Amino acid sequence: MLITAEEYTNMGFPDISAQDLPGCIMRSDYIISALTEGRAEKAVQNGGKPAELVKQAAGFQTYQLLREMKMVQDNSNSRSDSEKVSVGDYSYSTQTSESSTTQLFTSDCDEAGLNVIRLLRAAGCLFAGVEVRE
Prior knowledge:
Number of strands: 2
Structural class: mainly alpha
Distance between the termini: 43 Å
Order of helices and strands: HHHHEEH
Largest sheet: 2 strands, antiparallel
Strand content: 5-15%
Radius of gyration: 22 Å
Oligomer: single chain
């Protein structure tokens, strides 16, 4: 594991759902491991500044996954009210529903994803090949 639940909360990230936190930490490990081809785990084992940066990236990725889970749960629990009115032969119905703002959530997730990439790049875990020609 790149981070623990205790490290996640100590970094200042909000604990959106305590029951989902261990699963999201594990999934963020999978994502970062695949993205860095195993370099993140080696950086954490070696310690130092790169390890801190990888742990921060894992925190941002976990936060993003927790927010996505909360968004899905909120959308499945959204309330819908309908009303039917009839007066003689005339009738009409109205329907209202509550839903959260997706645009704000998307921009937050995009920023969190960019933070993960920036931190992993600073830790030296992302490959950046350079071709030299003579």
